[in-house]
């Protein structure tokens, strides 16, 4: 994706090169807006003009060469984004310049056992555009493989298109969980992924969604997006309340989008016999589980890793049909040169922010 108004040219020994602005991760709390070379569009690739990027905060990035991209820090950020197709490489015949698209950012080798089974999210060497190399959404241009591009219908705006990635995480978690119509659900955490799970459940007709969240603003968002009950773990006994709300049995399924030890302990005990605890959170440090709490109630613990091929399109279809209405998740819009002060720092200090939209070409 490219925006001529934001391109500059520099003269060097090798001749004139076009450069672009990009937000690059150099290390912990070290985010810089830099001029880097505009990527070239090769065979089987698509070059996009990045207009929107949803910022979720700094993630783990390779400090040694990634096994697929060969890149390491400093790297361009942004794995949740949408944009306009600017250039199409040889061998790509089903897209047009000017098309509105979002990007499914998983990088995978296609050769490992998981990939051969279609589980690209479980690739032995996986990574993400915007985290592991191949550029990222927080730049004026990005080149990605054709397989990463999903077209947006007229009913889905570019702004909402930048939400497809986190929504797909929640969608995938619900999709492969044992949830069925009529089941009761507990969600730990009312942040972006917790809200995505709520919306995926509502689209599937969930009638009893319980959310555990501390922050007042996030409690309000949980209610707005369809939670039937919102509990505060600092004030409410989560286990007792879930049993009370579920006929003394506990919930059928619990989704952990928080990654906090105390929350996990409560979620296990709040789940009924033969219920399932679904972990979506990426934990910052090892967690512990009292296995007997699983064994003696025949509970199951299930790990979830992002999404697979097809999940993005299903989310887009749900939005286009009106079954999901995620636009209120956008709580602030900023420009590329404001990412560190109004983006990362706001997300770490202001719990009233859900998703901050970076308008790259604004």
How are the SSEs ordered, and which strands pair?
Elements: E1 8-12, E2 15-27, E3 30-37, E4 45-55, E5 75-76, E6 81-88, E7 100-103, E8 106-107, H1 113-116, E9 127-128, E10 141-145, E11 149-151, H2 158-161, H3 164-176, E12 184-188, H4 192-203, E13 208-212, H5 216-224, E14 229-231, H6 238-245, E15 251-256, H7 261-270, E16 271-279, H8 291-295, E17 300-303, H9 311-320, E18 330-335, H10 339-349, E19 355-359
Parallel strand pairs: 12-13, 12-15, 13-14, 15-16, 16-17, 18-19
Antiparallel strand pairs: 1-2, 2-3, 2-5, 4-6, 4-10, 4-19, 6-7, 7-11, 8-9
Task: Please give a quick description of this structure.
The chain has 362 residues and is an alpha/beta fold. It contains 10 helices and 19 strands. It is globular and about 65 Å long.
Question: How would you describe what is shown here?
Answer:
The protein has 362 residues and is an alpha/beta fold. 24% of the residues lie in helices and 29% in strands. It contains ten helices and 19 strands. α3 packs across α4 and α6 packs parallel to α7. The two termini are 14 Å apart.
Enumerate the spans where pLDDT stays under 50 for 5 or more consecutive residues.
1-16, 51-59
Strand content bin = 25-35%
Largest sheet: 7 strands, mixed
Using only C-alpha atoms, the radius of gyration works out to 21 Å
Task: Report the strand count.
Answer: 19
- Which class of secondary structure composition applies to the elements? alpha/beta
Please bin the fraction of helical residues. 10-25%
| Head-to-tail CA distance between termini | 14 Å
Large-scale geometry:
globular
Secondary-structure element string:
EEEEEEEEHEEEHHEHEHEHEHEHEHEHE
What's the overall average pLDDT, rounded? Answer: 89
Number of helices: 10
